[in-house]
């Protein structure tokens, strides 16, 4: 951890966690490259045009990023995807469920679980903190649960994880975090957001939540928070930070 003076911990009841690059040690660019290649090959093997699927996937992602909050990200994504590929959304979604239950997990070889993640979660649970995963909600629940398991974690340790079926916004929009706060039933002042992206995760502070940046795979955006002015450290540092938090029991 940096030797410079860092902001003191506040009193929390709840911790929100980013996943990729935070709890799961993986480089986002490498993950996305492997994911798109894997999904494209799977689609091709099942009689679909792999290039068309990838093009529709990216357009669907853009549509979710522009979601006005009136529909879930799931309900924004599939009409776009279906229209561009000329496919039946329900049939393709069922097919993709097979992908996330199988071939998707081969990407786990890009990640090496850090025991500090499981240690931190165990410490927080023992002390009575409420935990949630607030990852970018552009994936189905099965894909988020899979990545938690890649990190050596149990999805049941969290009261919820954000996914595209339950979220109506995305990072870094404040609406995304406000929705997560309502779902958790807590005030922002009681929350510590733990992430690695100074813009996407740092946006949680706009609601009044506190922030801790995990620096192992830090992404410092030009328009993000100044990491040096926030609580930060490696995942091992964060696990020690959790040990110093008071018990709520």
From TrEMBL:
* Record-level Gene Ontology MF annotations: hydrolase activity
Q: Which InterPro entries match?
A: HAD-like_sf, HAD_sf, S-2-haloacid_dehalogenase
Xref: Gene3D superfamilies: HAD superfamily/HAD-like
Query: Looking at the record's lineage, which domain of life comes first?
Result: Bacteria
The protein's UniProt keywords, in alphabetical order, are: Hydrolase
Under Pfam families, the record lists: Hydrolase
Its name, as the record gives it, is: HAD hydrolase, family IA
